[in-house]
């Protein structure tokens, strides 16, 4: 699997430092609240489980799964709700945890859903932000890294459901795609 990677963008150490920085800031900002931390599956799973370890506050977690990619490297534009939350979000302070914001469509869909369900506040923490990819307006409150407009894999992010278990974020060799 490591042989498929052309270059490492963010090493394990880079990611650990970003998690510490964001977790510490989040703990400070939410010290007087009990936020509901929502992990957007599947990509944000590693990031969420790491960042919450640096948050010494009371918090709850839940999971939601939406899909806009259907396996390739380009967004299709249609968002499908694959797995809903277990928690009632009415009146709650929500921290959405995302792996990457690209077109912004996923984030807009989720924010609209949470607003419709009467969340008290909604903030967004993303490991990576790709501002050059925006199609709809969407903004994260907490960002680990601003990434160039490349398709990235690892640390939760996939290409055709693989590479999520890489401990770093990298870019695939071109031949990995052209083989398909
Ligand atoms: P949008 O376009 O809705 O995208 O902002 C958000 C979701 O799309 C996926 N995504 C990626 N997945 N490498 C990936 O493995 C990428 O470079 C990439 N860019 C977007 C991701 O699931 C994200 O939550
Ligand atoms: Mg995702």
Automatic annotation (TrEMBL):
Domain of life: Bacteria
GO process terms (BP): GMP salvage; guanine salvage; hypoxanthine metabolic process; IMP salvage; purine ribonucleoside salvage
InterPro entries reported for this sequence: HGPRT, Hxn_phspho_trans, PRTase-like, PRTase_dom
Signal peptide segment: none
Occurrences of domain Phosphoribosyltransferase (ranges): 11-159
GO cellular component: cytosol
Reaction(s) catalysed by this chain's protein: GMP + diphosphate = guanine + 5-phospho-alpha-D-ribose 1-diphosphate; IMP + diphosphate = hypoxanthine + 5-phospho-alpha-D-ribose 1-diphosphate
Pathway: Purine metabolism; GMP biosynthesis via salvage pathway; GMP from guanine: step 1/1; Purine metabolism; IMP biosynthesis via salvage pathway; IMP from hypoxanthine: step 1/1
Single GO term (MF): hypoxanthine phosphoribosyltransferase activity
Requisite cofactors: Mg(2+)
Keywords, ordered alphabetically: Cytoplasm, Glycosyltransferase, Magnesium, Metal-binding, Nucleotide-binding, Purine salvage, Transferase
Entry's localization field: Cytoplasm
EC top class, as a word: transferase
Principal subcellular localisation of the protein: cytoplasm
Pfam families with a match to the protein in the record: Pribosyltran (PF00156)
Family membership noted in the UniProt record: Belongs to the purine/pyrimidine phosphoribosyltransferase family.
Purpose of the protein: Purine salvage pathway enzyme that catalyzes the transfer of the ribosyl-5-phosphate group from 5-phospho-alpha-D-ribose 1-diphosphate (PRPP) to the N9 position of the 6-oxopurines hypoxanthine and guanine to form the corresponding ribonucleotides IMP (inosine 5'-monophosphate) and GMP (guanosine 5'-monophosphate), with the release of PPi.
Name used for this protein in its record: Hypoxanthine phosphoribosyltransferase
Lineage: Bacteria, Bacillati, Bacillota, Bacilli, Lactobacillales
